[in-house]
## 1
Amino acid sequence: MKTKPPADEEKSTVRTYDLVLEYLKGQILEGKLTLGAKLPSERSLMAELGLSRNSVREALRQLENMGFVRSVHGQGSFLVNEAGQGFSSILSMMLLLRQSDRGEFLTLRESLEAAAYERAVRLAPPQPLLEMEQAVQAMEQAQEPGQLEQAESRFHRSLIEAGENQLIAAIMEALSSQGDLYRRETLAQLDEATRTPLLDTHRRILKAIQTNDTSLGRAALAEHFQLIQ
């Protein structure tokens, strides 16, 4: 039977990880470390922080698992920013365990998409706008619920992409599984009386970004979420 490590050993492990993390954060703030830079050697970290080789290696391994460090055999460890996927996975699990209801979920999603929209109006990046335009066309031509669902999902993902905010994108990625479920339920029950205004909200959001008409898109986005409540 596997025994639990002593409390002081657990604290030591946490402290080691925190020491290395805080040291690296300090180096970044001082401009001594930048994205893609090679980290100090294990020996340097041992001397700087007063840690054993095993402790340093374990701390670096944890940082690698989090997506902040990449170890290259024979070359050393490098500072990277690949934490988005891990962050999304953790948040997704938190939301599942929290079991937020549909209203809470849609309120959060509306806030995030509204923030992305405001940025998209200012930035108007061409590729995401092209994706949104193609998604609207696909929605108009969709004959089956699955086709409409895929096109609608593409539109909203492209809207988030147009906002060019990595944190919003990471949170929305974490919401995607639950969002796809709610979207499937909503579109499966959609009748023509609701489908027409719902499609129109997408057209107006796209037009608002293309014409830099902030108020038009705000109203369309608010109407969109009222329709899918």
Note: The radius of gyration is 23 Å.
## 2
Amino acid sequence: MIGALEPPETSDDADARAAAQGRASRFREDTRAERMSIADEAQARHARKVSWGVAVGDERILFTHLAVPVMTRLRQPERRVLDTLVDAGVARSRADALAWSVKLVGAHTEEWLGKLRAAMDEVDNLRAEGPGL
């Protein structure tokens, strides 16, 4: 669950980042009891853990999230699959792409990725043909 907080009013990036972290910390402490109550209810209802965070302007700050690190060695063709998913916006990172892939291994994966690559190539071609800004 991500809550939205007002961004700080400062033009300096370093000051804005520090102010965003401060707002997030205050929000985290001030709402702890209420968030835990909501989490308990949501976890009981959905049988899943609830993670918390805030968005302050363009910055996203996570309070709690579950992730288990996994080490694996991937060859170039396997990394290309993950990079395609990230580049296409299907996943945010290689780790997310790998988790997504593990869930969706199926008979038509290679066909779908080929279509996705072709669509991305078409988008690149259209961008190149479009007007410059």
Note: The chain has a mean pLDDT of 85.
